[in-house]
TrEMBL record:
Belongs to the methyltransferase superfamily. Arsenite methyltransferase family. It catalyses: arsenic triglutathione + 3 [thioredoxin]-dithiol + 3 S-adenosyl-L-methionine = trimethylarsine + 3 [thioredoxin]-disulfide + 3 glutathione + 3 S-adenosyl-L-homocysteine + 3 H(+); arsenic triglutathione + 2 [thioredoxin]-dithiol + 2 S-adenosyl-L-methionine + H2O = dimethylarsinous acid + 2 [thioredoxin]-disulfide + 3 glutathione + 2 S-adenosyl-L-homocysteine + 2 H(+); arsenic triglutathione + [thioredoxin]-dithiol + S-adenosyl-L-methionine + 2 H2O = methylarsonous acid + [thioredoxin]-disulfide + 3 glutathione + S-adenosyl-L-homocysteine + H(+). Gene3D superfamilies: Vaccinia Virus protein VP39. This is Arsenite methyltransferase. Pfam families: Methyltransf_31. Residues 79-198 form the Methyltransferase domain. It comes from the Bacteria. Keywords: S-adenosyl-L-methionine, Transferase. PANTHER family: ARSENITE METHYLTRANSFERASE (PTHR43675). Signal peptide: none annotated. Its EC number is 2.1.1.137. The keyword Secreted does not apply.
Length: 204
């Protein structure tokens, strides 16, 4: 299975298209997209806890576009530091912030400014003060080395053109014994070169 995109793929264009798509998801979540979004999808298809979702603002959940439920995959201890890669409008980020409590920290990282603004507004609306938002992406995390107890990610690694570098960044920021809880899309067989060169497929 390839861990990197073709060497001649225009990764700058890829990043720009990803930003454009998810900026539209932030600003107009009711628009037409080829992937599911929102609270009903999170609760019905991905088994998010209804009561937990009720504790965070609809502002965050309406733009939710994850592919799984990373917080179901392992425990997040109270008081711990959590980093959410590709936090979007903040659904998983705010859920994690509530779990770790006031003695913990939840750091959200996203490359899309409208998503960061929406996550910040949602945290403020909910009165959740242990949240910090940072601009960045999985290939160069704006996080100190060995500073994080748990890293979570939901549907972001499949968008990264260099998976080895992405995983290396996750391992860099985790403390010894830290945990990486992630949900993502994988394929069972090698994709043909024509598919791997299609930016529209990468960016979705």
């Amino acid at each position: 299975m390839a861990a990197t995109c073709p060497v001649d793929l225009d990764t700058v264009r890829l990043r720009n298209e990803i930003r454009e798509i998810y900026a539209r998801v932030a600003e107009a979540p009711e628009g037409e997209f080829h992937f599911h979004r929102g609270a009903a999808y999170a609760e019905t298809f991905l088994r998010y806890d209804r009561q937990a979702l009720a504790r965070i603002p609809p502002l965050a959940i309406e733009s939710f576009a994850g592919v799984g439920n990373p917080l179901r995959m392992g425990s997040v201890p109270p008081g711990s530091t959590v980093v959410d890669i590709g936090c979007g409008a903040g659904t998983d980020l705010l859920l994690a912030a509530n779990i770790v409590g006031p003695r913990g920290r939840a750091i959200g990282i996203d490359m899309t400014d409208p998503m960061l603004r929406k996550a910040q507004a949602a945290a403020a609306e909910a009165g959740i003060s242990n949240v910090e938002l940072r601009r960045g992406d999985v290939l160069e995390l704006p996080v100190e080395s060995a500073s994080t107890d748990v890293v979570i990610s939901n549907g972001v690694l499949n968008l990264a053109p260099d998976k080895r570098r992405a995983f290396s960044e996750v391992l860099r920021v985790l403390r010894p014994g830290g945990r990486f809880l992630y949900a993502d899309i994988v394929v069972e067989s090698e994709l043909p070169e024509s598919v791997r060169r299609d930016i529209d497929l990468w960016s979705g």
